[in-house]
Design goal:
The chain is of the alpha/beta class. It has one domain: Aldolase class I (TIM Barrel, Alpha-Beta Barrel). The chain has helices at residues 32-35, 82-94, 109-120, 147-160, 177-186, 225-241, 257-266, 276-279, 283-297, and strands spanning 10-12, 15-17, 21-23, 45-51, 64-66, 71-73, 99-104, 126-130, 166-169, 191-194, 198-201, 203-204, 209-210, 216-220, 248-251, 270-273. The strands form four sheets. It has an eight-stranded parallel beta barrel, surrounded by six helices. α5 (177-186) links the parallel β9 (166-169) and β10. The radius of gyration is 18 Å and the shape is globular. The two termini are 32 Å apart. 48% of the residues are buried. The protein binds flavin mononucleotide. The site of flavin mononucleotide (FMN) has 27 residues, from β4 and β6. Residues 24-27, 49-50, 71, 73, 75, 77, 103, 130, 133, 169, 196-197, 220-221, 224, 251-254, 273-276 line the site of flavin mononucleotide.
């Protein structure tokens, strides 16, 4: 269906993606299940689940809740730790013929740094520093709420992340996303991805208590798309004015070609698709095909021609 010769490739800080469509962290597992149904080499890239230095059991209680226009999750970064990932998951992912981006998380700075050292020496293509997970009590989003904490963490990770491009994944829950973004770029981020989930909640009115054990969870899906799009649009402008432009990767509720085109027009160089894959596992492949079709119909020769921010 989408095995066409048209060039949709995009270069993000020296790494060539064959198209701008990336599977978002936490929503594609280790790729093995999907590989039974699709050729994963058709994707622009795959972001791994959130990885921490040591294994994490994740959160107790209900972890996923569907609403009319979105999904709330409180997974809590369940994973077997980076060493296990390198041994058991990366060999398969690396053989998929697409760009592999490791999503790195931690509870404190030293943990992030030790994790980054391991990933820096591995076969992953890029590292996405997750300073935006709203579902963990320590670390995660707390690093991404204030410019100074974000700056310190990115500086520390950048120091050891010498061989891989470093993407920093931003939280929409901080008081000033642009200030945090500027701090991250000044600390050495090569690219920024935005956004992670919005802090939200659901109340079980029968039992008269919050649905999630942590009270709050992270909202994703169509409900957040217009807000995420606005954030990409504004951040593009801010970084341009500050002369700190880095590639932006747009995330948030993208579920069809038109959504993806909007983010590319707003200034994103690539996009990630998360929740939509749960509803329709073909979403990313349909979007790749749709972007290709749009370029043909509009006689656009390269992907960057889609942007309206030049
Ligand atoms: C079930 C689930 C698990 C997620 N786990 C992670 C994670 O481990 N690390 C991370 O950076 N983002 C994680 N996210 C956030 C997504 O990568 C993405 O930023 C967010 O869901 C918004 O995109 P979407 O609306 O397309 O889902 C998760 C999202 C969902 C729905």
């Amino acid at each position: 269906m989408i095995n066409k010769t048209t060039d949709l490739s995009v270069n993000i800080t020296g790494i060539n993606l064959k198209n701008p469509v990336i599977a978002a962290s936490g929503t594609f597992g280790d790729g093995k299940d999907y590989s039974k149904y699709f050729d994963l080499s058709l994707l622009g890239g795959i972001c791994t689940n959130g990885l921490t230095l040591n294994p994490k059991p994740g959160n107790s209680g209900i972890r996923v809740w569907e609403t009319q226009y979105g999904l709330l999750n409180s997974i809590g970064l369940e994973n077997n730790g980076i060493e296990s990932f390198l041994e058991n998951e990366l060999p398969f992912l690396s053989s998929c013929g697409t760009v592999i981006i490791a999503n790195l998380c931690g509870s404190f700075s030293e943990e992030y740094v030790k994790g980054a050292v391991l990933l820096n020496d591995s076969k992953v293509d890029m590292i996405e520093l997750n300073i935006s997970c709203p579902n963990v009590k320590a670390g995660g989003m707390t690093f991404g709420l204030e410019p100074s904490t974000a700056y310190d963490l990115v500086t520390a990770v950048r120091k050891v992340c010498t061989a891989k491009p470093l993407i920093v994944k931003l939280s929409p829950n901080c008081p000033s996303l642009s200030s945090v973004a500027i701090a991250c770029v000044k600390a050495g981020a090569d690219a920024l991805s935005l956004v992670n989930t919005f802090k939200a909640m659901v109340i079980d009115t029968v039992n008269r208590k919050p649905v999630f054990d942590n009270t709050t969870a992270g909202l994703s899906g169509p409900a957040i798309k217009p807000i995420a799009l606005r954030m990409v649009w504004e951040l593009f402008e801010t970084l341009k004015n500050e002369k700190l432009q880095v590639p932006l990767i747009g995330i948030g509720g993208i579920s069809c070609t038109n959504d993806a085109l909007e983010f590319l027009m707003a200034g994103a160089l690539a996009i990630q698709v998360g929740s939509a894959t749960f509803a329709n596992p073909f979403t990313m492949f349909e979007i790749i095909d749709g972007i290709w079709q749009y370029m043909i119909n509009n006689k656009l020769s390269q992907l960057s021609d889609i942007s309206i921010r030049n």
